[in-house]
């Protein structure tokens, strides 16, 4: 068996035993989750569900801002030259995925903040009269409301796809070198977002709607995951060796058991029974979907770091 030694921060790492790159995994997961939340809340706003007092589209933006900030902090921890991060925002490089991501993130916060103003959170003091005036203006203008909804759907889609493009742009890692990765992470983000909002939604009808939507997203995710694998298996020998890391290699158990089995197939079966009124809706399936979405990033990131153009890891 061929082996390679990887160094990070001047420390030797055994890639078959260590789970590293957790900061990027968490960032990609939270970025995809927030992207899905933006798309869902934007759609609900466009369909004027904000008129219902207990709709989730007035709560989701605040949760999204918090989660994305946590994800940004995780990304910051992974940066080698932290003090120079601000330079990303002084220029725009059209051919750089990182540059696109930095500027997309600049649009995410205003879009979510505009959504948040539809119903100003109760903990904000009344003395901030300007916020309440903006809220009143937004709620009295249907075109503005729909524009905010569309903006969240568009920016959310960009954020969700970017989380996959960020990896696929690294041609040195064959496992990541697939254009399907962006769509996979976008659909996974929609699935995890549907699961999360399904749990926190106070409106039972909205909760059931999100459960049905999540079932559809899981089916699409399984389909796209299958296409991702087929795409790599039908490519060069380096890509075949790379995908074998998750199919039969060091990360096979994590991929098949926790990502595919417990993260997709089992919650799909549970939620299918729930939406058909054969069993009650519980938090079990949504939690499995959310954990599965996180583990999908961990597996893809870590297995991708093991993949190499010339050496095979744990396959012989």
Reading side by side through the largest sheet, how are the strands ordered?
1-2
From the coordinates shown, what is the CATH architecture? Up-down Bundle
Helices, by number, come to 10
Q: N-to-C SSE series?
A: EEHHHHHHHHHH
Rg over CA atoms, rounded to whole Å, is 21 Å
Largest sheet: 2 strands, antiparallel
CATH superfamily: Formate dehydrogenase/DMSO reductase domain
Mean pLDDT: 85
Report the principal-axis shape.
globular
Structural class by SSE content: mainly alpha
- Indicate the proportion of strand residues: under 5%
Instruction: Report the strand count.
Output: 2
Counting structural domains, the number is 1
CATH fold title: Formate dehydrogenase/DMSO reductase fold
Q: Termini separation (Å)?
A: 5 Å
Note poorly predicted spans: 1-19
Can you walk through the features of this model?
There is one protein chain. This protein has helices at residues 22-46, 60-78, 97-116, 129-139, 142-168, 180-200, 204-233, 237-247, 252-275, 284-306; strands at 6-8, 11-13. It is mostly helical and 316 residues long. The chain has one domain (17-306): Formate dehydrogenase/DMSO reductase domain (Formate dehydrogenase/DMSO reductase fold, Up-down Bundle), CATH 1.20.1630.10. β1 (6-8) and β2 (11-13) form a beta hairpin. The longest helix is centred in the last third of the chain and has 30 residues, at 204-233.
């Amino acid at each position: 068996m061929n082996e390679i030694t990887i160094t990070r921060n001047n420390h030797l790492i055994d890639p078959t035993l260590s789970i590293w790159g957790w900061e990027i995994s968490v960032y990609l997961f939270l970025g995809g989750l927030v992207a899905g939340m933006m798309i869902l809340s934007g759609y609900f706003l466009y369909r004027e569900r904000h008129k219902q007092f207990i709709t989730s589209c007035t709560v989701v933006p605040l949760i999204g801002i918090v989660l994305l900030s946590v994800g940004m902090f995780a990304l910051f921890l992974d940066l080698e030259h932290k003090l120079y991060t601000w330079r990303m925002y002084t220029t725009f490089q059209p051919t750089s995925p990182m540059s696109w991501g930095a500027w997309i993130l600049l649009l995410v916060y205003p879009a979510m903040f505009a959504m948040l103003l539809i119903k100003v959170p109760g903990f904000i003091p009344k003395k901030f009269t300007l916020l309440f005036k903006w809220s009143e203006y937004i709620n009295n203008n249907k075109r503005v409301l729909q524009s905010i909804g569309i903006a969240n759907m568009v920016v959310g889609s960009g954020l969700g796809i970017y989380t996959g493009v960020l990896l696929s742009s690294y041609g040195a890692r064959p496992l990541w070198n697939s254009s399907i990765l962006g769509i996979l992470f976008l659909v996974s983000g929609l699935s995890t977002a549907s699961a999360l909002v399904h749990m926190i939604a106070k409106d039972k009808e909205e909760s059931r709607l999100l459960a049905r939507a999540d079932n559809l997203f899981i089916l699409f995710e399984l389909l796209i995951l299958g296409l991702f694998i087929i795409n790599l298996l039908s490519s060069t020998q380096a890509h075949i060796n790379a995908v074998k890391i998750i199919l039969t290699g060091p990360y096979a158990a994590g991929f098949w058991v926790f990502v595919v089995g417990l993260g997709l197939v089992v919650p799909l079966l549970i939620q299918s029974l729930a939406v058909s009124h054969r069993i009650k809706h519980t938090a079990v399936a949504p939690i499995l979907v959310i954990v599965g979405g996180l583990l999908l990033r961990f597996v893809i990131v870590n297995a991708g770091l093991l993949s190499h153009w010339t050496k095979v890891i744990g396959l012989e």
